[in-house]
């Protein structure tokens, strides 16, 4: 990738530019779901700190989502991050089903199918950029190979696959898919990970197969992880060439690690003020991400369990995202009666 030494330094949070006038541009091609958009937008900030222009590619809707939900910095304040808003394709936008037996977010499947329409627009954009720089580097989400597969025909282009989960998690997925062969002694913990059997609907398996079959052009894998935590599995992924490459980089953390000076008056700021007053290691954080939905009964059980634990906590309680987060109403699941008042008296915090 463009200046490998500089990219390795990202994992050490060295934000001072060590490369000047490098004739290279980077194109980010994220999967347009929150956990994926957010990671690659944070990586865009880090890359741009090396005076490298970054082109962030998504639909108008999802670029708007990424910019609105980013924390710790302002994308509009960085002049060498360029957002390319592709027209949002038509796709059905069903509500999440909180009562589904399988908790896979099937509401995003129509969006995932529609993304194949971006194959030609992304190619055209990369080709235009390639004519203006010595080298163009494409960083694409591991669920977006179909969209970038034609870039291999551009002589001065190279691509890197972004893995949105830890090397440990990815290794455990591949290990299970391979029939659970004998693990290295140092990786025995992988055997304790719950099985993924029954977690994915057939429709998602078809989409994943389409993407994996299109992964023909890859110079290496990038991880939002740290070698201090995940280094053994980063090296194991490389040694066994599990994703087809032995070139892996742990570049995390992508998120800003300094405290923002911005003073907000919203509930998020109040939560941080409360958290700052608590003793070290005295609060647990409870979140199930942006694609998980729970029934009212499940939420009630979680609420009561947290309350009875007598543990201080921050609980991010939200409904799952749809393919288009700006369309329609958002469900607000009810908490048990007087719940927030009760836990508040115990100096716990529920969001």
From TrEMBL:
Molecular function (Gene Ontology), one example: UDP-glycosyltransferase activity
Domain of life where this protein originates: Eukaryota
Residue intervals of the Glycosyltransferase N-terminal domain: 24-256
Family annotation (Gene3D superfamilies): Glycogen Phosphorylase B
A Pfam family it matches: Glyco_transf_N
InterPro entries per record: Glyco_transf_N (IPR058980)
Family: Belongs to the UDP-glycosyltransferase family.
Protein name: Zeatin O-glucosyltransferase
């Amino acid at each position: 990738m463009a200046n490998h030494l500089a990219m390795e330094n990202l994992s050490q949070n060295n934000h001072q530019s060590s490369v000047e006038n490098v004739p290279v541009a980077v194109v980010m091609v994220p999967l347009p779901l929150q956990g994926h958009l957010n990671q690659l937008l944070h990586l865009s900030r880090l890359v741009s700190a090396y005076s490298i222009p970054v082109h962030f590619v998504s639909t108008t809707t999802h670029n708007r989502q990424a910019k609105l939900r980013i924390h710790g910095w302002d994308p509009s304040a960085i002049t060498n991050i360029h957002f390319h808003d592709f027209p949002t394709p038509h796709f059905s936008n069903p509500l999440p089903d909180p009562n589904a037996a399988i908790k896979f977010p099937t509401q995003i499947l129509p969006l995932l199918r529609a993304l194949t329409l971006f194959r030609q627009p992304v190619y055209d954009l990369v080709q235009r950029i390639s004519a203006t720089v010595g080298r163009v580097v494409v960083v694409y989400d591991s669920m977006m190979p179909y969209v970038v597969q034609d870039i291999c025909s551009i002589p001065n282009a190279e691509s890197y696959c972004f893995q949105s989960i830890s090397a440990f998690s990815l290794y455990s997925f591949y290990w299970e898919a391979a029939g659970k062969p004998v693990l290295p002694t140092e990786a025995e913990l992988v055997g304790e990970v719950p099985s993924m059997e029954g977690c994915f609907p057939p429709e998602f398996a078809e989409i994943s197969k389409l993407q994996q079959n299109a992964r023909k052009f890859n110079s290496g894998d990038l991880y939002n992880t740290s070698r201090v935590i995940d280094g053994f599995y980063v090296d194991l992924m490389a040694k066994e060439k599990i994703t087809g490459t032995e070139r892996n980089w742990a570049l995390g953390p992508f998120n800003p690690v300094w405290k923002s000076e911005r003073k907000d008056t919203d509930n998020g700021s109040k939560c941080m003020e409360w958290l700052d007053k608590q003793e070290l290691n005295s609060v647990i954080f409870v979140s199930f991400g942006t694609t998980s939905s729970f029934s009212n009964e499940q939420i009630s059980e979680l609420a009561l369990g947290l309350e009875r634990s007598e543990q201080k906590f921050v609980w991010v309680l939200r409904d799952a995202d749809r393919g288009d987060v700006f369309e329609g109403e958002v469900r607000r699941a009810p908490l048990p009666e007087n719940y927030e008042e009760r836990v508040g008296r115990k100096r716990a915090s529920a969001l």
